[in-house]
Specification:
Elements: E1 2-7, E2 11-12, E3 17-18, H1 20-30, E4 40-43, H2 47-60, E5 64-66, E6 76-77, E7 105-106, H3 112-115, H4 131-134, H5 138-155, E8 158-161, E9 164-167, E10 174-179, H6 181-192, H7 197-202, E11 210-219, E12 222-232, H8 234-238
Helix pairs in contact: 1-2
Length: about 260
C-alpha cells in the first residue's frame, strides 16, 4: 500500500483558505495528479486542505472522505503553567489584555535554545514526560490521533503489532490524504517509532508538497512503512512556480522578509 500525504497550498489562516498563490500551487498539483495512480482520497475537515483537494478531485473525477483526525494537530501548550517551559516559545508568547494571562499556542515550533537543553523531547519514550508536554493537552490529542490512524490502517489490512504491522490482507492501493504539516509529522512519528518532536522540528514541507510512504513486506505477513520521499515539489518545479515560504523560518536571522 502507498500513502501520499499532501500538504495544503499556501494558506490564508485568517479565513482558513488558500491565498492566490496557494490556488496556483493547488492547480499545478492537479495538473499532474493523474500520474500518481490514486485509488482513494481522504481530506482534513479544515478549509485550506479541502480547497487544495478540490482541484485534484475534479481532475481525478473522485470524491474525498473527510476524516476529523486529519485536521492540523491541535494540541495546545499553556504558558501559564510553567515559567521554565514557556521559554520553549519565549519569542512567540502573547499576553491576553483581558485575562492578564498568556494565550495558549500550538505545541510544536519549539525554540532551538530550549530543545538544545532538553534532549528528552527527542527521546522515543521520554518525550511524554517532558515539561512542555505536561503543560499541554498533547498526550490526549496524540493518543486519539494514534488510535484513529491505526484503525485506519487496519481497515486496509495492516494491524499494528509492536514496531511492525501484521498483514491481514495486503494491497497495492494508493491512498491520498490532503492535510497539514503538523499532522503529517505526527503520523510519520508513529510510522517511524520516534518522538513527534523529531519530524516537527527537523522537517519542512512546502505547501502542496507530497510525502510518499509505502509498505515493505520482506517477510510474509510482516510489514513496515518506508519513506520514499518527503516534501516533494516536482509539480511546482514543472510549472515554474517558486514554492511559498510557509512552514519555514528565516534562513538567516537578518532576513527580515522571511518568517521569524
Amino acid at each position: 500500500m502507498r500513502l501520499l500525504f499532501i500538504r495544503h497550498g499556501d494558506p490564508d489562516y485568517s479565513i482558513d483558505n488558500l491565498t492566490e498563490k496557494g490556488k496556483v500551487e493547488a492547480k499545478a498539483l492537479a495538473d499532474v495528479i493523474d500520474t500518481f495512480g490514486i485509488d482513494e482520497v481522504y481530506q482534513s475537515p479544515l478549509g485550506r486542505a479541502k480547497a487544495t483537494a478540490e482541484y485534484s478531485l475534479k481532475a481525478l473525477e473522485k470524491e474525498a472522505t473527510t476524516l476529523d483526525w486529519l485536521m492540523e494537530f491541535p494540541a495546545l501548550f499553556d504558558p501559564n503553567l510553567s515559567d521554565t517551559a514557556k521559554m520553549a516559545y519565549a519569542n512567540e508568547l502573547r499576553m491576553n489584555s483581558e485575562t492578564g494571562k498568556y494565550d495558549k499556542r500550538i505545541v510544536w515550533d519549539v525554540l532551538p535554545s530550549y530543545y538544545g537543553s532538553h534532549p528528552e523531547l527527542f527521546d522515543k519514550d521520554n518525550w511524554r514526560d517532558a515539561e512542555v508536554v505536561k503543560c499541554s493537552n498533547m498526550l490526549e490529542v496524540y493518543d486519539r490521533v494514534e488510535k484513529s490512524f491505526y484503525e485506519f490502517l487496519a481497515g486496509y489490512g495492516y494491524e499494528k503489532d509492536g514496531d511492525v504491522f501484521r498483514v491481514k490482507e495486503g494491497n497495492d492501493k494508493t491512498i491520498a490524504l490532503f492535510c497539514h504539516f503538523g499532522i503529517t509529522s505526527v503520523l510519520l512519528s508513529m510510522l517511524w517509532h520516534v518522538s513527534p518532536f523529531m519530524p516537527m522540528q527537523f522537517l519542512a514541507m512546502a505547501p502542496t508538497s507530497v510525502t510518499e510512504i509505502v509498505t515493505e513486506e520482506r517477510e510474509k505477513g510482516i510489514a513496515i512503512f518506508r519513506t520514499l520521499r518527503i516534501g516533494d515539489i516536482t509539480h511546482l518545479n514543472m510549472a515554474g512556480e517558486k514554492p511559498s515560504f510557509s512552514a519555514r523560518f528565516c534562513e538567516r536571522y537578518e532576513n527580515e522578509d522571511e518568517r521569524h
